[in-house]
Amino acid sequence: MTRATEGLPQHHIGDQLHRITDELAEKFQGVFARGTVGRFVYETYDLLEARATVTLHLASLTARFAKQRLTDYGRAQGLTPITAPQVLFICLHNIGRSQIAAALLNHHASGKVAVRSAGSHPQDQMPDTITDALAELGIPLTEAYPKPLTDEVVRAADVVVTMGCGDACPVYPGKRYLDWDIPDPVGAPLDQVRRIRDDIGHRIRGLLSELSD
């Protein structure tokens, strides 16, 4: 048993990870061997479990994040078709700036851009001020969750936008890197979060215009 399956018999996590592996192996049949899929699933669980304070939905988050990671790995390896440019937003905790930017780009791009976000040191929960500020624009964050920065998501990106994550992001040739100097909204009052949201929104519209050219 790996560390991922130890200490949680009440949740039958081993059985859940096995089921997730089966489902993703079927989805990625012809692209990845089951062993590769299983490695990503168990590694993803370990990444999320190491930072989680609440494990109730950990299996479902593992399934979602492992699917995203495999998609990005396939894109980076040239094994899956590329239908849209991909943008990655990185901040320190992936509960503020990068989540706002990803949500706004998803909203304005209408599926024409693949969007990712990650944190160099992700935390467990997004503040209500972040979700409230986006809800005011009709953008729900019900499906968002903090994600650790992984190698394949950087390799799969065409544009990498950093926002206060320091030098944690690996640099690969052939990618466009942008660094946005934006204050951290975490812990700020709602009126300040709104200003940060609007600043990010202005930058997002400019980036989307460039990607559409």
TrEMBL record:
<dbReference type="InterPro" id="IPR036196">
    <property type="entry name" value="Ptyr_pPase_sf"/>
</dbReference>
<protein>
    <submittedName>
        <fullName>Phosphotyrosine protein phosphatase</fullName>
    </submittedName>
</protein>
<dbReference type="Pfam" id="PF01451">
    <property type="entry name" value="LMWPc"/>
</dbReference>
<keyword id="KW-0059">Arsenical resistance</keyword>
<dbReference type="Pfam" id="PF21234">
    <property type="entry name" value="Phosphatase-like_N"/>
</dbReference>
<dbReference type="InterPro" id="IPR023485">
    <property type="entry name" value="Ptyr_pPase"/>
</dbReference>
<dbReference type="InterPro" id="IPR048716">
    <property type="entry name" value="Phosphatase-like_N"/>
</dbReference>
<feature type="domain" description="Phosphotyrosine protein phosphatase I">
    <location>
        <begin position="85"/>
        <end position="210"/>
    </location>
</feature>
